[in-house]
RNA sequence: GGAGACGUCGCAUAGUCCGGCCGAGUGCACCACCCUGCUAAGGUGGAGUCCCCGUAAGGGGACCAGGGGUUCAAAUCCCCUCGUCUCCGCCA
């Protein structure tokens, strides 16, 4: 949720943000009108309530013989209070609905427009060249007996897979390498719940435009998380944090579930787009003044990972229209996937400024002693999908795959993954 | 799955039976000051969160797990939900 004060005092800024996102500026006017109506309704209720409170004290103190008359009077007042109270509650709800239609105010410099309007910030690493026809990750995965899509489909359906043998080890190695990276940077490891309550899913902003992407268990009214961000953001919901010693940083390790509704036919081959995968996610709670610097730090750690794995990649500054409602800026790191001759997203890091924290009621105490919403940021350090880029980038003519040096320690010293003869 | 107990301001608790004098007492912790010849003890005062009006000083409202109800009036009575604990049963 955006800052109601900003809406009141600088609606034009909010409108410009909406325009950059390609969304309606009318939402801003609607929300402002709802804000005015809400405040008027609250004022009306509160003055009536004050009257009732004062009157109630008189009734309590009054001698017996006068009580009956006073109570009769109070009854009438009570009816008016009740009416004003529900009017105020309605106005409050209307305001909340209106303000929640507005996305986070994008940061200056974020390119306007939609999915294809990103800025490329930099390209790093050499695009691999092969003296042979490179195999795609699934062909390699099957040669190595590392990925089994057929059995995944048999057991769970399309877009499910088994990681087997070196495939399973590779994923654990990546995740563990990411975890070590995070721990080195001062993150606290956290293995998170993957089923969460509606209010947490709502609070993190995933029940809006992306609702159809999310698995829901109606019998228990719980949602399966599509990213550990949900549980990591919910972790400190309704709390006042102490940030006087710097940011609170968590590295969440969890399985993620996505319905992939609306992506039928896209990335149907292999493990690029699957319903269930694992992810190691950084999550920071910071003083809003430090948010943009933290964002750069998260991006830096992500790039360290890709560089250590010998992957060619580029960093893009995602356009406003492709941000999602909570983010004010988002950088994606995309690795080169040789057989697709394209960069594909491996990580994403978002600065949600105070937007997410406001909804989840996460605050910190400022130097003046007042409370204020914190800023939240998240960023990926490893996921199942990375296996795609690693296998394809480091493959050799015989179908074997050279293990990047940085990963060998996590694979018991294994330096080459060899095809399995069956 | 069955039975029961409980959920109060950072922590620990009082208040709930008998509704109004309870936004709420006490202890610890905390902050300021005072006192004390020293890492202890004592004294005085302060201190919750959110919202509304106001430039401000200040005023007002809400909040006793959450939601609803009864009532002129609810921490207190009733209902539902969530959570914690204990016992029994069951289980990968």
UniProtKB/TrEMBL annotation:
Positions of ATP binding: 258-260, 274-277, 345-348
Coiled-coil intervals: 67-94
EC number(s) reported in the record: 6.1.1.11
Enzyme class: ligase
Keyword terms, alphabetized: Aminoacyl-tRNA synthetase, ATP-binding, Coiled coil, Cytoplasm, Ligase, Nucleotide-binding, Protein biosynthesis
Keyword Signal among record annotations: no
Gene Ontology process terms (BP): selenocysteine biosynthetic process; seryl-tRNA aminoacylation
Domain Aminoacyl-transfer RNA synthetases class-II family profile intervals: 186-404
Keyword check for Iron: no
Subcellular location: Cytoplasm
GO molecular function, one term: ATP binding
Site keyed Important for serine binding: positions: 380
UniProt pathway: Aminoacyl-tRNA biosynthesis; selenocysteinyl-tRNA(Sec) biosynthesis; L-seryl-tRNA(Sec) from L-serine and tRNA(Sec): step 1/1
GO cellular component: cytoplasm
Pfam families, A to Z: Seryl_tRNA_N, tRNA-synt_2b
InterPro entries per the UniProt record, alphabetical: aa-tRNA-synt_IIb, aa-tRNA-synth_II, aa-tRNA-synth_II/BPL/LPL, Ser-tRNA-ligase_type_1, Ser-tRNA-synth_1_N, SerRS_1_N_sf, SerRS_core, tRNA-bd_arm
PANTHER family membership: SERYL-TRNA SYNTHETASE (PTHR11778)
Domain notes: Consists of two distinct domains, a catalytic core and a N-terminal extension that is involved in tRNA binding.
Family recorded in the similarity comment: Belongs to the class-II aminoacyl-tRNA synthetase family. Type-1 seryl-tRNA synthetase subfamily.
Job of this protein: Catalyzes the attachment of serine to tRNA(Ser). Is also able to aminoacylate tRNA(Sec) with serine, to form the misacylated tRNA L-seryl-tRNA(Sec), which will be further converted into selenocysteinyl-tRNA(Sec).
HAMAP family for the chain: Ser_tRNA_synth_type1
Name of the protein in its database record: Serine--tRNA ligase
Gene source species: Agromyces tardus
Gene transcribed to yield this protein: serS
